[in-house]
Structures are given as structure tokens and as C-alpha cells.
Amino acid sequence: MKRVLVATGGGDCPGLNAVIRAIVKRAEQERDWEVIGSIESFNGILREPTEIRVLDERSVAGIHVQGGTIIGSTNKGGPFAWPIKKTDGTWDYVDRSDEMIRKLQYLGVDAVISIGGDGSQKISQALYEKGLNIIGVPKTIDNDLSATDFTFGFQTAVQIATDAVDKLVTTAASHNRVLVLEVMGRFAGWIALHAAIGGGAEVCLIPEIPYDLNVVLERLKSRYSRGKGNAIVVVAEGAKSKDGDVVAEESSEVGYKNVRLGGIAHKISYDLKKAGFEADMRETVLGHLQRGGIPSAYDRILAAQFGVKAFEMVLEGRFGEMVAYRHPDIISVPLTDAIGKPNFVDPSCDLVRTARGLGISFGD
Ligand code: F6P
User: Fold this and answer.
1) What dotted CATH number matches 157-290+346-357?
2) What mean pLDDT do residues 133-156 have?
3) Burial class of residue 2, CB neighbours in 10 A (0-12, 13-18, 19+)
């Protein structure tokens, strides 16, 4: 019996379970393959005792409609930076990648499928360079991975953000308010841009187009006449003004290397008030709602395509590569293409032009 190990790493995202199910269903057609899952990304392999579970058709039945991941995920630790507590109470990070590869050999693992975003695929590439038979599957609500048109999870997040705009529109109109909606995306403005167009916002602020507060102020003022009016501002968590920086804080969580973005919605309201904007303003931070719940049909389908393709890449021995979607095909690309540079919004792309054509201001 041959064994393929599946791991889900980084922030969870709608569609992860649909990928796992597709891998298992495709693998079961081969008869001589068994699928096992490592709990909480590779931490399940690195822990003692090992935390893995067999994934068969029964254990994945119906999970394509469930959010989250049945094998857990983490964006802390990992084989190259495993946290160890020192005697003085501080933490050190050690490279346990060789040990992990040996353990995978001991467990009879022939191939690994790593489902994750940018950080996880960088780990995949590093493990591949050490000789591990590994394949990547691109995941993130942020859609910031290169070499694929879309990552699964993104469309669900866009739908959730657009639904939020729809709801905010009615309350903004009732109270003559400006409602500022902060959405996720890290340093990419894809979710904000899509939700602003889909929901019909007046202002959309994204990291790729630094804003001028005065331009935003004038746009909002133009929405009011004799105190009556309303407006929706969709702001990406990584947005920043022309002369400012992102609103972020270092995390104190052990092994968490990312900065935590968040707070730009409140900053914008505060700055606009200070600049003399008179209408009422309220802020909504959508946060992890964008990552939870049932994946959209689109994401389930994309996830199913990625899962089937990933297992077929195992059969073909296409290690060091990642599944990718290039409309209308599901292809495989070198992992290095995916992690070389992030997929940011190009300020001159069609979608930005569409938004401008609709009168949406980017504050530039
Ligand atoms: O990368 C996905 C994402 O949801 C980002 O949009 C967000 O900035 C980050 O993860 C939040 O991470 P955490 O779950 O660690 O708070």
C-alpha cells in the first residue's frame, strides 16, 4: 500500500474540506493508495505522539459543504521554525525539517499534498529542495498567490463581504450615515475591490492604491446635501494613506510570524472627523466571518478540481509543483512560480477600471 499525506496549513478557508474529500475519492479509485491527514498542518507529524488520521471515503462523506478543515490548521510553528521554550521562559525556533522528513519515511509516506497559502507553499518548496515528494494546492481567501487565476475560498469571502455591504446600505440610508466596512486580504485588495463593485460602494480603499484623505473627504461630502445622504466605504485591512502606514500590530502569540492587520476602518473615521466631516460614521470590521461557514458552490467546485488534480499529480510524480487554475484549465506550475511574488491588484487592471467607471473612488 502506498501512502499520501495531506496537510492543511495557514489560516483556514472555505473549501479546504472539499479538497480533502476530492483527494480521498480520487485516491480510492487506485486501490493501492491510502490517504492520511496530519493534524494541524505538519505539527501532527512533529508532535510526540504523532497526530495523524486515516482519511477514507467514510470519514470524508459530505464534508465538501463544511467550512474549516477536519484535520485542523495552524499558522504557527512548522518544520523550519519549531518553537522551543528556553529555561529563561523566552522562545527559540529550531529547524526540525530533516527530522520530519525522516519521520515521514518511517511512516511509509510516499508523497505529501500541502494545501496552503503563500507561507505554506514556501515551506513546500523548501521541503521539496530537501528531497520530499511534495505537491502544493493553493488556498487563501486573500487570492494573493501568483500562478493561479483564483485560490479557492476567495469567492466565498467575496460573497460574505458583498452581503455585508448589502446590509450596511439599508442602515446607512436610514440614518444618513457613512458606514465603513473593513475586510480582510492582508496586503492585497482583491476582496475589497470585488465587494465594492458587487455591493455598490462609493469608496474603495486598497493597499495597492494609497489614498489621499482629502479626496475621500470630498467624495463623501458630495454624497450629502443639506445633511441628507449616505455612503459606503469598503476598506481593505492592508490599505494605507499616501503619507501613512498600515495599521498593524506584532502578535505576542508564540510562533506567529505575521503582523496582525486591523483597525484601518476606525482610523479612517477618526481622520475624517478630524478633517471636518460632519455626518455620522460607523465602522464594521468583518474579520473572521469571511473565513467561516459553508463554501460557495464555486469554491466547492474549484476545490474539487484542485483535489482531483493534486492526487493525479502524485500519480504522475509531478513533485515540486502546485495545482493552479488558468481559465478554463486546471494545470500544474512549479512551486517557485507561485511563491516568487504575491498576486496584488494591478492599479491599471480592468477591474479597477470597471470600478472607476462606476464612480467608485479609490481616494487617489
Ligand atoms: O490570510 C488569510 C487571513 O484571513 C488574512 O486575510 C488575515 O489578515 C489573516 O489571515 C488573519 O489571520 P489570523 O487568523 O491569524 O488572525
Assistant:
1) 3.40.50.460
2) 97
3) middle
